[in-house]
Amino acid sequence: MQVLTKRYPKNCLLTVMDRYLAVVRNMEQVVMIPSLLRDMQLSAHGSQAQAGSSDLYSYFTMLKAIRMDVEHGLLPRQEWQAKVAGGKANGVETEAGETEEPEEERVSGQLDLEAELHLHFASLHHILTHLTLKAEEVTRRYQEKTGQAM
Questions:
Q1: Distance separating alpha carbons of residues 91 and 137, to the nearest angstrom
Q2: Using DSSP, how many helices (H) and how many strands (E) does the chain show?
Q3: Partners of residue 41 on adjacent β-strands
Q4: Sign of torsion over alpha carbons 74, 76, 77, 79
Q5: Burial bucket for residue 26 (CB in 10 Å: 0-12, 13-18, 19+)
Q6: Closest C-alpha to 13, from 118, 115, 111, 116
Q7: What ranges does the record list as Acidic residues composition bias (predicted)?
Q8: 130 phi/psi in degrees, rounded to 5
Q9: What is the pLDDT of residues 60-118, one digit of tens each?
Q10: CA dihedral (122, 127, 128, 130) positive or negative
Q11: d(CA 1, CA 30)
Q12: Fewer CB within 10 A of the end CB, N or C, for the chain?
């Protein structure tokens, strides 16, 4: 596993992001044959996996995609909306969204921005910590499957 070279305070968002990126890079280096992860369920603290939950291969691909977003930034808003909508975004929706924007800015200017930042910061911190644990679990389960467990 890669060692973090930067030193930030423990609860700093940058620390959590660096740890996530390092764990996912390690996962990518360890998992040489991702197809082995198909049909393997993510265990929930030693108990049986829930019915209908994603397999480890789905987690593997999701964690890699999120790493790319964290490292390289997000798609511009319109490209992201087109991707989510499956390319079905039309000009009418875009124009409607643009006319609502000034009102949206006015309302957001009235909100307590510090409280909003704290909420989003705490949520992002929690999500990245949770995803880091998932990446460690995918790596551990792959190593068990291939006999590389430490």
A1: 43
A2: 5, 0
A3: 55
A4: negative
A5: middle
A6: 118
A7: 95-104
A8: -65, -45
A9: 999 999 998 888 887 777 776 777 777 554 444 444 444 455 666 655 565 678 888 88
A10: positive
A11: 9
A12: C
Residues 6 or more apart whose Cβ sits within 8 Å of residue 46: none
User: Amino acid identity of 53?
Assistant: S
Alpha-carbon span 150 to 143, nearest angstrom: 8
Tallying the residues shown for the chain, one arrives at 150
Cβ neighbourhood burial of 78 (10 Å; 0-12, 13-18, 19+): exposed
Tokens of 92: 């009418």
57 half-sphere exposure, CB direction, 13 A CA radius: 9
What letter represents residue 88's amino acid? Answer: K
The model's pTM is 0.67
